[in-house]
Design goal:
The chain is an alpha+beta fold. It is built from 16 helices and 30 strands.
């Protein structure tokens, strides 16, 4: 019984599916979380229609078994396998990067130096499998995954077998037509050199952006691998050096015996090609292949397959005089070696700055033993930092060359710098070995110039190559200050509060503005302020002192009204006057007109009266 697998599904009670990330003809691959160990994994699940097919199940289980026993940084790790819900699954290392094929499709061909580096890492993975007796048999860019740093890892050991093997019992040919070796296409014995042919095809495609042979069908492509010679990479891409061109063509030799003996020999040839040294042998191509055809039109490859002998040319190894001459040459070489020093002195090559794999291959090819000392460094992991003896020194063949190799920058605890000033934070982080990047962010809580947070956070463990992002406070956010003059105090406060601004109020007496009206503000409207800043507003109040109105010459009633309107009290007295115009009118006031007095103060007004006349303050005598 099988069920539909989707986000949230749990495989084998352990792997919670997040998304499908791949699908092939045989299985689907899902990104999932290992609930038990809390890590991300890739889970390959055999398609339901194959779960009852013993051959497919065996192939699937063989992939898991083959990959699980291979522990190598260039091979995708397998963590777990088993049956579940009527089918089979494999849980393995999750690589989020693309396959090498996807990169080639999206970006096109790869520069030679980079293609060599990728091929070297593939070869080291293949070498590890071969040393364990496993032949992959389906090396192709689709089965080379790239990690986040672009490093390749070989996967999909679904058709891998131990040791040399023939085609399946059903007579089918396993592998992918564009990358298949001639012997694999013909169902003949498979050896480690079969994988090396496929690696050569992958290198060819990286250099040229195309495979050596194309066709309308898998059969036509497979036949081309058997019968046709490939165009040289250099003829398609002049940037490919003659030495590298020769390496590729040797890897693509039709006969396994004409290819590199093993992955180590292939690696050594790539190292030489990087220095412009071509391999000793390169198989014939193009017109050279045509020249190898004998008088009856039968190629040497065909004779090798059919067992026919060349009727015209006698093989060199059947000529007795050649054998005798060869024996003499060998004896002469042995005698010369015996007469010379028993230990040969060899110049030590310069490998500082090279990758560990390349350095080892070059040194071992020159006959040296290699020992490794790891040291933390900002250089990429596996970069050779130093060597002893140094480059150019003469040393005995077989002597040890000690390499100091970068183990990367190492790890450290990110310092806690929240709340520190920017300068102090950067100094502490750089002292701990980290590089820093500054970002700014508004904050009402953290003072401007101080650290809000870091990423990775303080207290966490991180590689010293990590760039720590330091978020520094720019202080509160800036806002536009509105103009609130002329508004009532309450309305002005509300407007400023909504913007996050504080309000400070002062009062000022005003004769012409209503009490509570905003007379002025600081900063003025139209300016800028930060959230939390204070805006000072001045609000009108009634005056505490008033000016005594001029009431001289006014009637008592009119004078009294004017004084009371000014907020003053009134007391009236009389005084005789001989001036008829002053009778019934205010002669004087105390305080006098214009004097500044407190509000509600009393003003005494003196009303003129005629001598011996009735009191002028009576109503009938008070006319305006």
């Amino acid at each position: 019984m099988t069920t539909k697998i989707g986000p949230g599904s749990v495989i084998a009670g352990r792997y919670q599916v997040e998304a499908q990330i791949g699908q092939g003809g045989m299985a689907s691959v899902y990104r999932a979380e290992d609930i038990q160990l809390g890590r991300k994994v890739a889970v390959k699940v055999l398609h339901a229609q194959f779960a009852e097919d013993q051959e497919f199940v065996e192939r699937f289980r063989r992939e898991a078994k083959a990959a699980a026993q291979l522990q190598h940084p260039g091979i995708v790790s397998v963590y777990d396998t088993g049956s579940w819900n009527g089918t089979w699954y494999i849980a393995m290392e999750l690589l989020e990067g693309p396959s090498l094929k996807e990169r080639l499709v999206s970006e096109g061909r790869i520069p030679p130096a980079q293609a060599i580096a990728i091929t070297e890492q593939i070869l080291r993975a293949v070498r590890a499998a071969h040393r364990d007796g496993i032949i992959h048999r389906d090396i192709k860019p689709h089965n080379v995954l790239l990690d986040e740093e672009g490093r390749p890892k070989v996967t999909d050991f679904g058709i891998a077998r131990r040791g040399a093997s023939d085609m399946t019992a059903t007579g089918s040919i396993l592998g992918t037509a564009h990358y298949i070796a001639p012997e694999q296409a013909q169902g003949e014995v498979i050896t480690p050199r079969t994988d090396l042919y496929s690696v050569g095809v992958v290198l060819y495609e990286m250099l040229t952006g195309r495979t050596p042979f194309e066709g309308d069908s898998a059969v036509s492509i497979a036949l081309a691998h058997v019968n046709n010679e490939p165009r040289s990479p250099r003829s398609l891409v002049p940037e490919v050096s003659p030495a590298l061109d020769a390496v590729v063509l040797r890897a693509l030799a039709k006969r396994p015996s004409d290819r590199f003996a093993d992955a180590d020999a292939f690696l050594a040839a790539l190292a030489d090609a990087a220095r412009g040294i071509a391999p000793v042998y390169a198989p014939p191509t193009g017109e050279h292949a045509a020249a190898a055809t004998d008088r009856r039109g039968i190629t040497s490859d065909r004779r090798a397959l059919t067992g026919e002998q060349d009727p015209v040319v006698t093989p060199w190894y059947k000529r007795p005089w050649v054998i005798a001459l060869g024996a003499l040459v060998v004896i002469g070489v042995v005698v010369a070696l015996l007469l010379t020093s028993s230990t040969q002195r060899v110049r030590v090559p310069d490998v500082v700055g090279a990758s560990l794999g390349t350095a080892q291959d070059r040194l071992e090819a020159d006959g040296f033993d290699v020992s490794i000392v790891r040291s933390e460094s900002n250089k990429p992991i596996d970069t050779v930092l130093a060597q002893k003896p140094g480059a150019g020194a003469q040393a005995d063949k077989g002597a040890e060359v000690r390499l100091t190799v970068s183990s990367g920058p190492g790890q450290a605890t990110v310092p806690q710098v929240e709340g520190e000033t920017r300068e102090v934070a950067v100094e502490r982080l750089e002292t701990a070995g980290f590089r820093t990047k500054i970002e700014r962010q508004d904050s009402e809580d953290v003072e401007s110039g101080n650290v809000i947070e870091t990423s990775p956070p303080g207290g966490s463990i991180a590689s010293r190559a990590t760039v720590v992002t330091v978020t520094v406070s720019s202080g509160p956010k800036e806002v536009d200050v509105p103009d609130v003059t002329g508004q009532p105090e309450d309305a002005a406060r509300s407007t400023l509060d909504e913007l996050g601004l504080r309000v400070q109020v002062s009062e000022q007496e005003s004769d012409d503005k209503e009490p509570g009206t905003v007379l002025s503000q600081d900063p003025a409207g139209g300016g800028k302020a930060r959230v939390g800043d204070t805006v000072k507003i001045t609000v009108a109040t009634e005056p505490s002192k008033v000016s005594v109105p001029d009431v001289i010459g006014r009637s008592q009633a009119t004078a009294t009204k004017r004084l009371q309107n000014a907020g003053l009290g009134v007391r009236a007295t009389t005084e005789e006057t001989t001036n008829a115009d002053q009778v019934g009118r205010v002669i004087s006031s105390d305080p006098a007109a214009g004097a500044q007095v407190d509000k509600a103060s009393e003003v005494t007004i003196v009303i003129g009266k005629a001598p011996d006349a009735s009191d002028p303050t009576t109503p009938e005598n008070t006319t305006p």
